[in-house]
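Figure 3 (text version): structure tokens given as input.
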């Protein structure tokens, strides 16, 4: 962004018409400050060329950058959570799931996977939750993949393993945002890739280590990666097992944005809050559609499920059911055959 444009945006942000005095709007503070952070979402809709707030800014107003007030969910059902911290933001529809094994760089063991699965299930079923953050405890690692000390001959897949967790995140009809500080490597790298968005701190490091430790993911971990970064790059990442910093990761399309470590949660919350303003059904169907393009029959099934859910909410859908219950022929004549 040019210095002049940045100034315009800053002016627009401070303009009296901006109802958001005190709270920052969705425009990244890092963009306004000209820091090294880079964001794919430009500030364009928030200020017009003359520096005044656009109608978009006037209508939608500001997104709060305030910290969330987290309420901890210590147990799900009868089970205490030991490997994962599960929290919900008070008064807003955000859940946060934190892998809590920092002494192991948040490597997951079967128990971790099981708890993650419960938390994702709860967040999916909670109608108040509209966006889910997945992260790792501490600043050194998001997740370093499968705990190699407990890896058995059968891997983790048979015990609610990562393969199933990936599918669960893909199928979850709400956006999941990976909030990455430090290492996201091995299975941890795959976890962030299957999330819908990735916000990274400037200390984040990305890569696959599988071929070094006798492991690989021939599912989403390779095929979805190729969709994100292209075939050549995906082969480089897997075959050479190099590590990439956050800016390199953003350049290659692995992640959405990079922010200073101290602002990681603030920025992630802003992205979640922006999404929460939008139609949940639109986001849900878009996620299913974007997945369907690469998920074959399973993806179409998911998209089809959404179509049915919407149709059941319509008058036309209800007419069929009602007619059956009333033992009369359905009258579909009143419904237009739209072009
Ligand atoms: C992440 C590192 C680069 C961080 O390096 P550094 O900051 O120097 O910290 P360390 O001193 O190395 O680590 C601190 C502490 O943590 C332990 N640890 C870290 N990662 C792991 C791990 N993955 N498993 C077990 N333990 C781990 C480390 O040993 C230290 O403990 P001490 O007791 O203090 O010694 C670096 O740590 C690193 O490279 N880690 C390993 C990364 C890795 O190779 N991960 C595994 C990739 S393969 C994978 O994830 C399998 C996925 C999987 O399970 C799967 C997926 C799909 C289908 C099947 C399977 C399957 O069953 O295998």
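Below: residues designed for each position.
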């Amino acid at each position: 962004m040019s210095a002049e444009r940045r100034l315009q945006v800053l002016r627009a942000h401070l303009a009296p018409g901006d109802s958001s005095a005190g709270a920052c709007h969705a425009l990244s503070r890092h963009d306004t400050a000209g820091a090294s952070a880079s964001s794919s979402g430009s500030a364009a809709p928030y200020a017009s060329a003359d520096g005044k707030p656009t109608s978009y800014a006037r209508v939608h107003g500001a997104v709060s950058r305030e910290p969330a007030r987290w309420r901890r969910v210590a147990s799900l059902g009868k089970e205490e959570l030991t490997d994962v911290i599960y929290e919900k933001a008070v008064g807003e529809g955000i859940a946060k799931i934190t892998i809590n094994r920092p002494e192991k760089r948040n490597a997951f063991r079967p128990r971790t996977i099981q708890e993650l699965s419960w938390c994702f299930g709860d967040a999916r079923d909670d109608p108040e939750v509209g966006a889910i953050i997945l992260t790792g405890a501490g600043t050194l690692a998001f997740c370093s993949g499968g705990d190699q000390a407990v890896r058995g001959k059968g891997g983790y897949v048979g015990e609610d393993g990562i393969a199933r967790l990936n599918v669960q995140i893909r199928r979850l009809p709400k956006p999941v945002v990976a909030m990455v500080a430090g290492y996201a490597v091995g299975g941890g790298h795959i976890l962030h890739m299957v999330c819908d968005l990735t916000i990274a701190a400037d200390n984040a490091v990305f890569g696959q280590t599988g071929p070094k430790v006798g492991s690989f993911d021939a599912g989403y971990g390779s095929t979805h990666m190729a969709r994100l970064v292209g075939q050549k790059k995906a082969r480089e990442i897997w075959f050479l097992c190099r590590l990439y910093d956050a800016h390199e990761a953003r350049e290659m399309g692995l992640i959405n944005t990079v922010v200073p470590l101290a602002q990681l949660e603030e920025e992630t919350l802003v992205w979640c809050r922006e999404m929460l303003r939008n139609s949940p059904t639109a986001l849900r169907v878009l996620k299913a559609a974007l997945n369907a393009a690469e998920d074959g029959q399973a993806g179409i099934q998911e998209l089809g499920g959404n179509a049915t859910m919407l149709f059941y909410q319509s008058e036309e859908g209800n007419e069929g059911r009602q007619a059956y219950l009333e033992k009369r022929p359905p009258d579909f004549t009143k419904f237009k055959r739209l072009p």
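Residues 5-37 have pLDDT under 50 and may be disordered.
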